[in-house]
Specification:
heterodimer; A: 334 residues; alpha/beta; eight-stranded parallel β-sheet; globular; B: 322 residues; 16% helix; 31% strand; disordered N terminus; disordered C terminus; binds flavin-adenine dinucleotide; binds flavin mononucleotide; binds FE2/S2 (inorganic) cluster
Amino acid sequence: MTTTATSAGSAGPAVGFDPRTAIGTLELKNPVLTASGCAAAGRELGRLYDVAALGAVVTKSILRDARSGRPTPRMAETPSGMLNSIGLQGPGIDAFLAHDLPWLRDHGATAVVSIAGNDAAEFAELAGRLVDEPGVGAVEVNISCPNVANRGLVFACDPGSSAEVVSGVVDVVGGRVPVLAKLSPDVTDIVAIARACLDHGADGLAMVNTTLGMVVDTDTMRPVLAGVTGGLSGPAIRPIAVRCVWQVHAAMRRGDLRTAPIVGIGGILTGLDALQFVLAGASAVQVGTSTFHDPSAPLRVGAELAQALAARGFAGVADAVGHAHTVLAREGAR
Amino acid sequence: MSAVTGPAPAGVPAAETLGARDRRPDPVQVRCAVLANEPDGAYRRLVLDAGEAARRALPGQFAALAVGEPPTAMLLRRAVSIHAATPGDRRFDGADTLEIVVAPHGPGTEWVTRRRAGDVLDVVAPLGRPFPAPEVGAPTVLVGGGYGSAPLVWLARDLRDAGHRVDVVLGAASRDKLFGLEEAAAVVGPDLVHVTTDDGSAGLRGRVTDALAPLARDGVVVYACGPMAMLRAVHEVAAGAGGTSWLAVEESMACGIGVCMTCVLPVRGEDGVTRMTRSCVEGPTFDGDRVRWDAISIGPGGATSAVPADCLGAPVAAGKGH
Ligand SMILES: Cc1cc2nc3c(=O)[nH]c(=O)nc-3n(C[C@H](O)[C@H](O)[C@H](O)COP(=O)(O)OP(=O)(O)OC[C@H]3O[C@@H](n4cnc5c(N)ncnc54)[C@H](O)[C@@H]3O)c2cc1C
Ligand SMILES: Cc1cc2nc3c(=O)[nH]c(=O)nc-3n(C[C@H](O)[C@H](O)[C@H](O)COP(=O)(O)O)c2cc1C
Ligand code: FES
């Protein structure tokens, strides 16, 4: 009997290409990670493929206490994207340490644990609980959530709040694992926020989180989301995300900003999408919303990116980081 | 082999449901050739060459289809119930087939209904918890609203083979929106198929609950699939008669595989604690007695869920959650 059914999402290895990359002291076998909130804690994707083959699994943001999240509807599809207002639903750090981290460890996955808190002290507490746990490869600080103490203003929209959270986490972690600060694109000057995070000890930047959006239902004539506004993600935001990476990497090249690894995030669906981020200045990338379209996307993008880099004559990822800046500079010099 | 799995509680933490005691098959992602696409009343019935997905599927599970020509602007998959899974399907040269029934609703499902034989669909299946088995010997009633009967015919066959009495209630707005009448009659016999339509164009004029009420008695196990308002009404009739209801809900899903937390509704777990529970992995079938109907509003735009104050992790003070 013949069947046309084939397993989706396979692309062969790029011969002679070194796919390894690093985020500070964390060595990654390849530069493509899942994005927070788009892969839970790896277990569900593990039913479809081996999550150890991913650059890393970035967990849903972990909170201190269990949180129910928002009422429904929590999502709306938009052209080449989606809005979500999940409200950081999760069981809290105790359940994460008891059930999820051991699973990731047992399955050989590199875990980047995303954390979120209501105030700087909560972030630091979470980082303290995580840092000595075996299997935690890095901590990603999701400062793109509201600061309860500061009128609900998103930490990542204010350099002072960003710095406070990051320095608290960095102090507790004490260099034992890299600390990444995850930035919001909803700011006037992304370089100023990046500077606040790097000046206060962040080892790298993850950029970007979703951008705020909204959809109105023209039949019911009310907002679609129960939370009214939500985070826009997917290919629709990719140009914004590439621009943010470009601006921050450019500031590093100019010497306006300490040089540190950037993890590019936003609308990556293919290897060439990921390549845009690398050329703009990212050392690694995360695949989020595309995982909903194609669960194998984080794996497939890894293979496609390696092929695309090899085809352009790069021997390794590091050689290509920020290459678009070099090309532009060369043109300017001519 | 009976494909119906043992009872499994709704709303238990992910770590538990995905553990060893969960007998669900793992899903696979497959590129499936369309083998047939035929009209069936107001719907289209598609047969897919689905390989391993067809060999693994159990009644009550669903498939998530990628829609649109790549690179599509419709990023999210569309969930459809699996109507039948036939490994070694003789009608199609022994291919392992999945059948789905699709109502053209918006752009995504319309695109699916336009697929022709030979076209390829990217499918993730089988997903979700299969229908749980009833107590040995319990009388059963299967209630389908519109295309909601799609997953029920398969279940009817398994229940019949396991020795249960199986009544089937099919309801729809009008005759063309009924699905599965002949197939259900072939499985349980025409006398045990009860039809209702809102406009009286077929069967009894009225609602499925009008036909369900006389069949619902102590110990009855009702399986229902259809709009939320119907599910609530079915639950009330079943519970009122001292029976159990297993309801397959239709929540908006972004991923279908349990990673995004969009498809939740408030459900009380085995431990009595209410959680915002993912319908794509802990469901789509839930025990009607465990659904927090007090927090669910059913309006013209569909069902929406509030977070009950006693839900795990509910905001403590007004304005604290975000
Ligand atoms: C478990 C399950 C089983 C289902 N079984 C079937 C079936 O057997 N046959 C069938 O025809 N339909 C079924 N549906 C409903 C089907 O998934 C929706 O009609 C479809 O997603 C609508 O997509 P659209 O592009 O046509 O409409 P649009 O309204 O344009 O969709 C926009 C977005 O909203 C979501 N959405 C809209 N309506 C629904 C809905 N009712 N349920 C879930 N998501 C929705 C879509 O996924 C999409 O992301 C099922 C849904 C679920 C959750
Ligand atoms: C459903 C959903 C949930 C998310 N949850 C989180 C989260 O918990 N923490 C976080 O830092 N980012 C979260 N994000 C943002 C993503 O990690 C990512 O930054 C963003 O979606 C842009 O990338 P993408 O276009 O590849 O999805 C979430 C995104 C989506 C779509
Ligand atoms: S649809 Fe994503 S968790 Fe259920």
